[in-house]
Write a structure and sequence with these properties.
Strand order of the largest sheet: 5-6-9
Radius of gyration: 30 Å
Low-confidence stretches: 426-447, 467-512
Order of helices and strands: HHEHHHEHHHHHEEHEEHEEEHHHHHEHE
Mean pLDDT: 78
C-alpha cells in the first residue's frame, strides 16, 4: 500500500505531468523534422481518414453524381451522430460496459465524432459500389489517397499536432497552477497565476504568439533542420519508429497521470484553461413549436482538457504507420552513399520514373536535357538514413505503445466501471426522467394539482400526524456542488427546487 501511494505521488506530481506534456510537444517536432515523408512530393494517403477526406472534399464526378455523393455523406454524418450517441455512447459504453467516464452525457461528442468517421468510411464504400455499377468511373472512386502532396499534408499534420500537444501541455500547466493537491509545490507561481486575470492573459498571449511562430516556421521552411543539426545523431527508420511509438505512450500518459483517472468522477472546481468559468454551455436554436425541450451543448471537465489528445492520437498513429512501412521508392525517394536519403523535388518527373531510374546510380550519371545537368543536382539531400531493416525489427517499436494501450484499457476496466452494487446514472427511474424534462409546475398540472396545493396537502398531513416536523422549501442552489456518487445531474440541481423534511423532534431549551 505504501509503495502504491509513493508511486502515485511521484507519477502524478506536477513536475512529472509537466515533463511528459512538454516532452510530447518536443518529440512531435523532432519526428516531423527527421521524417523523410515530410518532404515527399508524392500523393498523401491515410487509412480511413484519407477515405473520409476524399469522400467529402474531392473526386466529384459532376452532374447528378455530385448530388448522389453529397446525399451519401450527409446520410453518413447523420447516421454517425445518431449511432455514436444512442448505440456506442449510451448502449455500449454506458449500459453494457458501464464506464464511469461516459456516465450521463459525458464524452458523447467525442464518441459521435469517431462514429461519424466510421460511418463516412462505410458510406464511401457504398458510394464506390454505385460507381462500379455505372462503369468507367474508376478515377472518381473514393480511396485513401487524399489528392494532396505528402509535404503539404505533413505540414498540416505538424501544425495540428502542435496545436493539440501544446494546448494540452498548456492546459496541464494551467491545472497544476490552479489546484491544491500538492500544496507545497510552486507556491509563488500559484499566487501570481491566480491574481486577477493573470492566468487568462498569459494563457492566450503565450498560445497565440507561439502558435503564430510555429505556423510561420512550418509553412515557409524558414528553418531547415538538416542545416541546423548537420548530421548530428542521424535517425534511421527503426529509431524513428521507436520515437513515434513513445509519442503514443506519452499521449496516453498525459491522461493516465490525471488525479481522477480512470473514472473522472471528481468535481471540477477549477476554471477551464483561458476562461473564467468551469464549463462551456452553448444553446442550440430550435423551433419551439416542434421541439418542446431545450437543447444545448455542454462541454466541461476532463473531456474539455483531454479531448484534444484523442484527436492527436489519429495523427500520431499515422506517423507510426509511416515509419513501420516506410520504403523510399513509394515516396519518390532513393538511398545514396552512407545510407542517406535523397528526395525528388519535382513531382511531374516522378510520373516517368520506375525502380531502375529512381536510384542514386542512375540519377547521378544521367543528364536532364532541360537543364543540361544531372538529375541528382536538383534533388534534396537529407541526413536521415534508411538501413533497410526488416519489418520484424521495426514492429518491435510497437511493443511500448501496445503495452501502454493494454495498461490504459486494463485500468479503465478495473477501476473505471460501475460495479453491480453501485447505482448507474443511466438507469434512472422513469418518473425522474419525466420530472427532468418538465418544470415542476407542468408536472403538477399533469397530475391535476398545483405546487401550492401539493405544499398545503403535505402540511395538513403533517399536522394530523401530531409529530412536530420542520418543512422547508429551498430555491435553486446555483452554487452547490454535486456529490461524486449522486445520480442527479448538475443541470437538474440548478433547475428544480428541493423539498427538505426534518423529522427531528423540537426539544425544549436546556436548563442552565
Amino acid at each position: 500500500m505504501e509503495i502504491d501511494t509513493c508511486f502515485r505521488y511521484y507519477f502524478q506530481h506536477p513536475w512529472s505531468r509537466l515533463l511528459v506534456a512538454y516532452l510530447v510537444t518536443f518529440f512531435n517536432f523532432l519526428i516531423f523534422a527527421e521524417d523523410p515523408v515530410s518532404h515527399s512530393q508524392t500523393e498523401a494517403h491515410m487509412i480511413v481518414v484519407g477515405n473520409c477526406f476524399s469522400f467529402l472534399f474531392n473526386k466529384y464526378p459532376g452532374l447528378g453524381w455530385n448530388i448522389l455523393k453529397v446525399v451519401c455523406w450527409i446520410l453518413a454524418i447523420i447516421s454517425g451522430l445518431l449511432a455514436g450517441k444512442f448505440i456506442f455512447h449510451r448502449q455500449l459504453f454506458g449500459r453494457y460496459l458501464r464506464l464511469k467516464m461516459f456516465r450521463e452525457d459525458h464524452g458523447s461528442w467525442m464518441t459521435m465524432f469517431f462514429s461519424t468517421i466510421l460511418f463516412l468510411f462505410i458510406f464511401s464504400h457504398i458510394y464506390n459500389l454505385f460507381l462500379l455499377m455505372a462503369g468507367s468511373m474508376k478515377p472518381h472512386m473514393v480511396t485513401e489517397y487524399m489528392g494532396i502532396r505528402n509535404e503539404s499534408f505533413m505540414k498540416i499534420a505538424a501544425v495540428g499536432t502542435w496545436m493539440g500537444d501544446f494546448v494540452t501541455a498548456w492546459m496541464v500547466t494551467d491545472m497544476m497552477l490552479q489546484d491544491q493537491h500538492y500544496p507545497d509545490w510552486g507556491k509563488a507561481a500559484r499566487r501570481f497565476w491566480k491574481q486577477g486575470n493573470n492566468r487568462i492573459v498569459l494563457f492566450w498571449t503565450v498560445l497565440i504568439s507561439l502558435t503564430s511562430v510555429v505556423v510561420l516556421v512550418i509553412s515557409t521552411d524558414w528553418i531547415s533542420w538538416d542545416n541546423l543539426n548537420r548530421g548530428f545523431l542521424p535517425s534511421d527508420e527503426v529509431s524513428r519508429a521507436f520515437l513515434a511509438s513513445f509519442i503514443l505512450v506519452f499521449d496516453l500518459l498525459i491522461v493516465m497521470q490525471d488525479w481522477e483517472f480512470p473514472h473522472f468522477m471528481g468535481d471540477l472546481d477549477m476554471n477551464l484553461p483561458g476562461m473564467s468559468t468551469t464549463h462551456v454551455k452553448v444553446k442550440l436554436p430550435v423551433c419551439k413549436r416542434i421541439f418542446k425541450e431545450e437543447y444545448h451543448i455542454h462541454i466541461t471537465g476532463k473531456w474539455f482538457n483531454y479531448g484534444i489528445i484523442f484527436l492527436v492520437l489519429i495523427l500520431d498513429l499515422n506517423m507510426w504507420k509511416n515509419q513501420i512501412f516506410y520504403k523510399p521508392y513509394e515516396y519518390g525517394q532513393y538511398v545514396g552513399p552512407g545510407e542517406k536519403i535523397y528526395i525528388v523535388e519535382e513531382p511531374e518527373t516522378l510520373v516517368n520514373f520506375n525502380h531502375s531510374t529512381l536510384t542514386y546510380e542512375w540519377r547521378s550519371t544521367n543528364i536532364d536535357p532541360n537543364t543540361n545537368s544531372t538529375y541528382l543536382e536538383r534533388d534534396m539531400f537529407l541526413h536521415s538514413r534508411y538501413v533497410g531493416a526488416s519489418l520484424d525489427v521495426k514492429c518491435l517499436a510497437f511493443i511500448p505503445s501496445l503495452a501502454a494501450f493494454v495498461l490504459f484499457g486494463f485500468f479503465i476496466w478495473l477501476f473505471g466501471r460501475f460495479q453491480d452494487s453501485e447505482t448507474f446514472t443511466e438507469n434512472q427511474d422513469k418518473t425522474y426522467e419525466r420530472i427532468k424534462r418538465k418544470s415542476p409546475s407542468e408536472y403538477s398540472k399533469e397530475m391535476g394539482v398545483t405546487p401550492e396545493e401539493t405544499l398545503a396537502t403535505m402540511t395538513e398531513s403533517l399536522k394530523r400526524s401530531g409529530t412536530p416536523m420542520l418543512l422547508s422549501v429551498d430555491g435553486p442552489h446555483f452554487g452547490a456542488t454535486p456529490s461524486t456518487n449522486s445520480t442527479v445531474s448538475l443541470e437538474t440541481q440548478e433547475t428544480h427546487p428541493s423539498i427538505v423534511i426534518d423529522s427531528a423532534e423540537q426539544e425544549d431549551p436546556a436548563a442552565s
